[in-house]
Amino acid sequence: MEKKNSYSRRFFIKASAAMGALAVVPKYVSSFYRDVKALIVPVKKHVNLTVLVNKQPYTMQADTRSTLLDLLRENLQLTGTKKGCDHGQCGACTVHVDGERTLSCLTLSAMTVGKEVTTIEGLSEGDDLHPMQEAFIACDGFQCGYCTPGQIMSAVACVKEGHTGSVEEIKAYMSGNLCRCGAYNGIVESIQKVAQA
Q1: 51 near 111, Cβ under 8 Å?
Q2: According to the 3-state scheme, what is the secondary structure of 169-185?
Q3: 124 CB contacts (<8 Å, ≥6 apart)?
Q4: What is the pLDDT of residue 32?
Q5: CA-CA distances (angstroms) from residue 94 to 68, 97, 131?
Q6: Is the CB of residue 135 less than 8 Å from the CB of residue 188?
Q7: Is-contact 152 134, C-beta < 8 A?
Q8: How confident is the chain (197 residues) per 10-residue block, as mean pLDDT?
Q9: Considering the entire predicted model, what is its pTM?
Q10: pLDDT value of residue 2
Q11: Which pLDDT belongs to residue 3?
């Protein structure tokens, strides 16, 4: 018995059409994707940005969407401000903007134009440490040290704001700064020491 040919003319036409469609569709899909992306994702814009950091003005081209944290670390190489959670939950990125503690990971750099930004590098006066930095050393307020810059910036603000009436009050106003090593007792002691000075 002779074996019947399984490839018909109709099968050949369908297969050819399918192969042709596969060759063309990705081009239209990628074109469609680019069009949708252009509508949804804003175009990256760079602007001249002048910021005052640690009493020094800096002018640079910066992405309007960059955070203050990224601007400090990547553009100005001020790496004392740490990138922890990058979601405003750990406080490692705390800096002062016009004297108030601010989470730099949640602050757009463009929002700081005309304001004074102070980082941990700008807290000391030359070789003289800030009293809070000295207190952290004296009271063993740090262990691994990763959260320490943010803790010190918040601690300085805590004293300045006058929230040092009790250990509970200090803990409440420092609650946005997390220490994974558990150096909280030393941190509270440091704040009390500076507040009493």
Answers
A1: no
A2: HHHHHCCCCCCCCCCHH
A3: 130, 133
A4: 84
A5: 10, 10, 18
A6: no
A7: no
A8: 70 86 76 84 85 95 92 96 95 97 96 95 93 96 93 97 96 95 94 94
A9: 0.78
A10: 57
A11: 58
Question: Which string of b and e fits 123-145 if b means at least 16 CB within 10 Å?
Answer: beeeeeebebbbbbeebebbeee
The per-residue pLDDT for 116 is: 97
What does residue 8 show for φ and ψ, rounded to 5 degrees?
A: -95, 170
- b/e sequence 101-119, b meaning 16+ C-beta within 10 Å: bbbbbebbbbebeebebbb
How much is the pLDDT for 1?
Answer: 52
Strand partners, 118: 96
Closest Cα to residue 119, out of 104, 105, 134, 140? 104
Distance between CA atoms of residues 122 and 45, nearest Å: 29
Amino acid (1-letter code) at residue 32: F
Lookup: tokens for 79: 């790496």
